[in-house]
Structures are given as structure tokens and as C-alpha cells.
User: Fold this.
Amino acid sequence: MHTPERTSASSRTTHATLNGSPLPDSLKPKENHAGTPAFMGQLIGNSMVVIVLLAWWLASRSMGDVLVPDPLAIGRRMLEVLFDPSLAMHWVWSLLRVLGSVIVAVLLGGLMALLPRWFPALEGIIHHLLKPFLISFPTVAWALLATIWFGVSTATVLFIQVVILVPYCLINISEGVRVLDPELTEMGRSFSRSPRRLMFRIILPQLLPYFIAALRIAYGVAWKIALIAEMFGAQSGLGYLMVRAQSYADGNTVLATCLVIVILFWAGDRLLISPLARRFGAQG
Assistant:
């Protein structure tokens, strides 16, 4: 015989419901709030953006456009930079240079990371001499030297960006090479002695997450150094546009150009790099 103390929770819930009495908190159905934190975070983030824009607009009204540019004017200038054919060519050139330099830097960094695996004698040269030199060499110095060596051209901008990005890629991919599974590689050798098959079937699949991580870092850094490279070595691009705006004391164009870079970076990360990271399991 069941005692009242041993009555099942479902029976008590049904009895209380039928009698119209309120349920204890322990017996109330639990709601699913799995999406609540993400929703609240998005809501807070969007609210902060609105608050910042409102504060910016109020500061512009009270302090004047000279000290605090009008956000509406900046927005209009951004649209001009993005869609006016005479100005849009600058961000198109910058984007092409960034993408090209990132691809070349990732490939060079990957090659330099893999060379010591094939030729152990290069370990000291690459990791103890070349890598510290590339990391510590000043960015501005590369820009000045490239302008002297190659003049003002797209090749100059690409050289500056690639030589600065390579060490970032080398560091990331070298870590992947260091943690390669030796047992998996040995098993691959037991099935095939072809170095090409071993590279494309065993080694590169293990390194793909590290290549994607290097790609993500290089893409972010590339936009930071693109302006410096184009200021010194190009007659087109967003960096050149900023220099021209500075010479006319056009603060609206300078700010609009910076925000356009933010938009381009965000678009590239969301549309290209994030899908690759999800596909190949890279964290970022």
C-alpha cells in the first residue's frame, strides 16, 4: 500500500492541479531558458551601440562639429566611400591587397614551418634567427625601405604587408607542426612511401586548424598595417585616401574611412574566415 509520503510527484502534481491549489516551486514545470543568456547579451550589446551613438550625437550638438564630428555626417560619408565609384575603388584596392598578402603570408609561413621537418638543419636558422628578426623589425622601417627599393606601387604595399604577416603565420603553424601525431604519420608511411601522399593525406589535414588560425590572425593584422603600407607606398587604397583627407583637414573622411575598414574586416571574418573555422574545427 502506498503511503502519503511515498506518493509519486506526478500524482501530487495532478491532484494539486485538479483542486486548483498552487503547485510548490519544486513541482512546477521548468521552462527552457537556454537561449536567454545569448539573447540578453545581444540585447545589451545593441543597446550599448545605440547609447554610444546617441551620446556621440549629443556631444556633437553641444561641442560643435569641429571637436566632435556629427555621426550623421560620418554615416553619409561612409556611404559615399562605399558606393561612390570614384571613392569605392580605394576600398576595393585595399581589400584585394589585404586578401593577396594574407594568402601569400600564410603559404610562406606554412612552408617555413614545414621546412625544418624535411631539413632539420634549418631549424636553428628559421626559428632562432629568422623568426626573431622578422618579429622585432619595426613596421615603419619595412615601409620606408620598401618605398626606397620598389618605389610607389602595389608591389611595395604587398611586400610590406607580407613581410610583416609572415612571422604571425609562422608562429601559429609551427605550433601545429610541433604537435603532429608521430604515430599517425608512421601509420601513413606503412601504407604509402609517397611523400606527396603522406603530406596531403596525413600531415596537412592535421595542420588545417592551425592554418585557419593563422589566416584569422593575419587577416586582422593585415587591415592594421594596410593603412601604413598604403600611406607610404601607394597612390590608391584607404590609406592613401586618409592621407589625402588629412592634407585637406577633412576629419569626416578620416573617421569614415576607419569605420569602413571595420565593416570590411567584420564582413570578411563573418563571411569567409568563420565558415572555414567551423568547417575545419579551428578555434577563434
About this structure: Residues 4-63 form one domain. The chain has two domains: 4-63, 71-280.
